[in-house]
Amino acid sequence: MNLRRWLVIVGVIVSAALLAFPLRGVVNQLIIIPLAYLLWALKLFYLSVPQLVWWILIFVAVSLILVASLLPERKPAKKNAHEDLQRRGAVEHLAAAMQKSGEGIYFKWLVANRLGRLAQQMLEKREHGKRRSAFAPLTGDGWNSTSEVQAYLEKGLHGSFAEYPNSAWGYFSPRQRSALDHDVTDVVETLESNSENT
Question: Same domain, yes or no, for 159 and 100?
């Protein structure tokens, strides 16, 4: 944790401590007294209802829980969702990952991984189906791409989202740009131009 984060945490704690003393009367009036009154009213209500009524309510609740646990489970909605997931093709999976790419580094890496695998399949097709090593660089005869696009595809295929720092503290310190932050449109155009030469 860097110095800036520590200063923010210390500042929040000091501010809370300074506000706690002057606001104690307001907290007492707005929270403590109404809560105590509510608990007192609930206690009066509990004591005013006969014990037989409470025992009947408990018996009914336990009976309903037992009956619900003995009934067979029905999960048609989950089954349909699973079938829809299986019907999805590679393009749908890629589109879904691209929609979520703003949510974090994992989804950015997922898009780069799928595009990297596509580039590898294109290179295998150029080599007449000859299987390439999983660690082989994405290069070959007639393969044209900029160094940025090449770094993006290589990171997606051979890298991992775990290589990048956790962005949970992103509000206090902005995340550094990486190869995965390259414009996806540029990568897709590069793959399209290379597919014409396949």
Answer: yes
Do residues 26 and 95 share a domain?
A: no
| Domain ranges, residue 141 | 86-196
Rounded to an integer, what distance in angstroms lies between the CA atom of residue 186 and that of residue 190? 6
Going from the C-alpha of 186 to that of each of 5, 40, 146, 172, 193, the distances in angstroms are 36, 67, 10, 31, 11
The residue out of 12, 36, 70 marking a domain boundary is 70
N-to-C CA span, the chain: 49
Model-level pTM greater than 0.90?
no
Q: Are residues 97 and 48 part of one domain? A: no
> Alpha-carbon distance 57 to 41, whole Å?
20
For residue 123, being part of any structural domain is answered with yes
Number of Cβ atoms within 10 Å of the Cβ of 180 = 23
CA 77-78-80 angle, to 5 degrees, is 65
In the block, tokens 């660089």 appear at 137
Element (H, E) at 130: none
- Report the 10 Å Cβ neighbour count for 161: 17
Please state, in angstroms and as integers, the Cα–Cα distance from residue 193 to each residue in 25, 90, 139, following that order.
71, 20, 14
Express each pLDDT in 140-169 by its tens digit. Answer: 777 777 888 888 888 877 777 777 655 444
Residues 177 and 142 in one domain: yes
